Give the backbone structure.
Amino acid sequence: MCLQLSRKKTEKEVMNPGTAPFSDTFVMPHFVAHVHAAYSRKPQLSKSLWDAARGSYLFGDNSSVKVRIIPFESSGVAAGDYVHVEVKLMEGRTPMQKNALGALVLEQVATVDNFESITCEVLDLQPFYFKAAKY
């Protein structure tokens, strides 16, 4: 797809073109990073994911952003130090928004360390299957 813009849009306009209003169900993102248990910079990695969420302008005031670091003991992947990030969102973002968010996650995680591999997948959660409760 080729996009042609008549004027240069701001980063905020590109990431959030106003496709849907912000609501509790719309803004609910989960950022889950999988990294080796021995990796020592987990707090910095967590902050980089928060920075990506904030920089995307997709999640309102970011109060519903959830970030988790999931350590693993062993891996069958040839790469040494690597991180894989899953971003789980309620449906409603455009492919362009999701692509830009994934690129922003890769960019922010790359500032933390010299990982041999960084991967990111942005996944839509279907409202029918996702359930949440506040207690």
